[in-house]
Design goal:
heterodimer; A: mainly alpha; B: mainly alpha; two-stranded antiparallel ribbon; 7% strand; globular
Chain lengths: 332, 440
């Protein structure tokens, strides 16, 4: 049952990365693909109807972690007090930028909020990537599972590397989304950027994979299915390359989704069965079995979450199909 | 500084600021759905404008509610790790349900409501207004259910080692304490929504613009506020008080400023509590009335604060004043809206400029009443974090010190000051633009 809970939370976080990932990526790329005020407004409006709903996945995953693994929720959020709070501030700032940008007809006002929006989004991706990197590497933990290090400790080279991969991969994801949803010069530039970002992602992915194997020991204590993930990751990357060259934007975006999902699955497999792996790895960590509540609570929360999410996915998909629209943008 | 106090200050500040926005969304959502349905079924072009106008205001509230709501959920983990660890098995349930059942609904269909006018059918567009309304009210229910469990824990067992484990989710969701509290919270938000709608209408009438639609706002707003100002007092407020009387008598004593157990206890209308001399300063009493309100009998005995050890008292002054502010304002709302209803019947409301002025100026007060009500509930719960089970002092994160909590509190103060200023700017701008303005 704890394993099922681990899978559900993993899937919710994956959904968060795939969905909020594209709007974070679009935000990060907006200054690069959109040159004029009008183009930047168009770039932002491609995610306007969706970003709020996408962010709910993070809130729901947080709620699910609270209900399914209260101990992990408690020790991780309090252990990373400052980084978590900074993530919250960035989320708030980003939301403000998104909402207020178009409400004041001034070039300076727009420039400021565009900068704030791109900056806070990029920083958010980097921080979330660094957090994931630290989870993969393992953390110095007390016997109760509380984090014993400092903020600066979290900024170790390996974690920063994962953070950079996160920025590159989500920028690529955002570029694929923009290419799909926006026409004219911004769409063309997004497609061109996709080609450049693809190489950066490939190189960083290779380095991170090698570094992970070094940090965790070569495939020690890793479920066998995890070993398949690099194959899927590389396969989806190649698929994206050919799809974007062929101008099949929908397939390129789907490939990007597949790539991100395979990365996260590999990460989950590397961590399993720990929610907070210890560093060094031989010390274990806070596992899903340590962090579970009673069976009643687990079954209740799992049932509620799964039933609810099936409904959510059904109506979100139906709505997204109706609301999807290619935005037409004129020349520079 | 004491870490418990630092954590409590941060929670109090962030929750009170956050709650301003759910008041708006829960209170305005039914008006949007109402105008939207009128627009679709009655081909009522003015109602369509009204729906679009209030959706714009709603959206600003919703966005501010989302960004200030995320820190609320995360704060259980960051600042209240021991509470989360001990009680997460129960308290996590309504919170995950809020996300999955209410929050998605509200945010996905708000996207449709805001951007879907040209992209989806008018039936789906109208349905999305109803679903946003449903989402905002459901969201409120799950949050109140979580709070009600902290007020009156049910459906749990104590595991060996003292951890609180869920036994029955239906008991938690059907907690009798939750239902009256929820209806009270909801009625309070609708009163606020009514005053907002009426107040904006009154502003347009005073400014001599958009008069036809403004009259509709004033009528719809005041009549709604009138009905729900009555419901907020009876039965929801009355039943909520009965629950407090039965389960949290020491909170009742603090609310009423009753220091000594009395048969035929008087109701203090005003007065300032003196916790040292254990009496009210300069009080005005209604004799025997507290006994009647609490037990339906003018001679019934009501226990005073001194019947309990002082360490079990909630902060008396704050609980007492918050309660009196809430009740006082609630009474004013009922009186003003009743007068409006009377003048609407006589067809004289729109010519009574002084009353339109009053309606416009009263707009902030339902917010204060709602916040004061929550202050009674939460401050009055002290010293417990889970009533009778776990002390607030046992809840904070063991690995977070006061200095860290104060640092983040200062950050939230700065961030929310910016957010508050922008929220006011956007809202006032939308009101100044008016219902005729085409959406940006």
């Amino acid at each position: 049952m704890s394993v099922a809970a681990f899978i559900v939370i993993g899937m919710m976080l994956t959904a968060y990365v795939l969905l909020d990932g594209y709007d974070l990526g679009v935000a990060a790329l907006t200054p690069l693909v959109a040159r004029t005020d009008h183009q930047r407004a168009a770039s932002m409006s491609s995610i306007g109807p969706f970003w709020n709903g996408n962010e709910v996945w993070l809130i729901a995953a947080g709620g699910a972690l609270f209900a399914l693994f209260p101990a992990a929720y408690a020790v991780s959020f309090s252990g990373f007090y400052l980084p978590f709070t900074i993530v919250l501030w960035l989320l708030i700032f980003r939301g403000i930028a998104m909402e207020v940008r178009n409400h004041f007809p001034s070039r300076v006002w727009h420039d400021f909020w565009d900068f704030a929006f791109s900056g806070s989004s990029t920083l958010l991706i980097l921080l979330l990537g660094i957090a994931l990197g630290n989870l993969l590497r393992g953390l110095p933990l007390s016997p109760q599972g509380y984090f014993l290090g400092t903020f600066v400790y979290l900024l170790n080279p390996y974690a920063i590397l994962v953070g950079l991969l996160a920025v590159a991969a989500l920028a690529q994801h955002g570029a694929a989304f923009l290419a799909l949803r926006i026409s004219g010069p911004p769409g063309k530039r997004a497609l061109a950027l996709l080609g450049v970002l693809w190489w950066i992602v490939l190189v960083l992915y290779a380095i991170v994979t090698a570094a992970t194997a070094l940090e965790r020991g070569f495939f020690a204590h890793v479920p066998t299915w995890t070993a398949v993930m690099p194959v899927i990751s590389l396969g989806t990357l190649l698929w994206m390359r050919s799809a974007s060259h062929a101008g099949r934007e929908r397939a390129a975006f789907a490939a990007s989704c597949g790539f991100l999902a395979s990365l996260l699955a590999a990460a989950a497999g590397t961590m399993f069965p720990y929610l907070l792996p210890s560093f060094p790895a031989s010390r274990g960590g806070l596992s899903i079995y340590d962090a579970s509540p009673s069976a009643t609570a687990l079954v209740t929360a799992l049932t509620a979450t799964i039933v609810g999410l099936v409904v959510v996915v059904a109506y979100t998909a139906a709505i997204a199909r109706r609301m999807a629209q290619k935005i037409v943008v004129g020349e520079d | 500084m004491d870490v418990v106090l630092a954590d409590r200050l941060q929670f109090a500040f962030t929750i009170m600021f956050h709650y301003l926005f759910p008041i708006g969304t829960m209170g305005i959502a039914p008006f949007i759905a109402f105008y939207m349905l009128r627009a679709v079924r009655g081909k009522d072009a003015e109602a369509a404008k009204a729906a679009r106008f209030w959706t714009k205001i709603f959206a600003v509230n919703f966005a501010a509610g989302v960004v200030t709501g995320i820190p609320m959920e995360f704060q259980f983990g960051t600042n209240w790790a021991l509470f989360s660890r001990e009680a997460g098995s129960v308290i996590g349930q309504p919170l995950v349900m809020e996300g999955v059942y209410a929050f998605f609904l509200e945010s996905v269909f708000l996207g449709v409501l805001l951007y879907g006018a040209e992209r989806v059918s008018s039936a789906l567009h109208a349905a999305s207004a109803v679903l946003v309304w449903l989402g905002s009210w459901l969201s409120g229910f799950f949050i109140v259910a979580a709070d009600a469990w902290m007020q009156h824990p049910v459906g749990y067992v104590l595991a060996p080692g003292g951890r609180i484990e869920l036994q029955s989710i239906s008991a938690v969701l059907l907690n009798p304490f939750a239902w009256w509290q929820y209806l009270h919270v909801l009625c309070g938000a609708i009163v606020a929504g009514g005053f907002i709608v009426a107040g904006v209408g009154a502003y347009y009438l005073l400014a001599g613009r958009d008069e036809s639609i403004a009259r509709r706002f004033v009528v719809a707003g005041t009549l709604t506020a009138f009905i729900f100002s009555a419901l907020v007092i009876y039965p929801s407020g009355d039943r909520n008080s009965a629950d407090v009387t039965a389960d949290q008598p020491v909170k009742l004593a603090a609310m009423e400023g009753l220091f000594h157990s009395t048969n035929g206890a008087p109701l203090a209308i005003i007065g300032m509590p003196d916790t040292r001399a254990k009496q009210l300063i300069d009080p005005i009493f209604v004799p025997d009335f507290l006994s009647f309100l609490a037990y339906g009998n003018f001679r019934a005995g009501v226990k005073g604060l001194t019947a309990y050890a002082a360490e079990l008292w909630p902060p008396v002054e704050l609980t007492y004043y918050a309660y009196h502010v809430m009740v006082g304002l609630g009474t004013i709302f009922l009186a003003v809206t009743a007068l409006c209803a009377l003048l609407i019947r006589r067809g004289r409301l729109f010519t009574s400029r002084w009353l339109l002025w009053l309606l416009m100026l009263l707009m902030p007060l339902p917010y204060i009443a709602n916040e004061a009500g929550w202050t009674v509930t939460e401050v009055g719960r002290q010293p417990w974090i889970v009533y009778g089970l776990m002390r607030t002092a046992q809840g904070p994160s063991p690995n977070v010190v006061a200095g860290e909590a104060i640092f983040t509190l200062i950050g939230f103060l700065g961030m929310y000051f910016l957010l508050g200023a922008l929220f006011l700017y956007l809202t006032l701008r939308a009101i100044a633009g008016g219902p005729e303005e085409t959406p940006a």
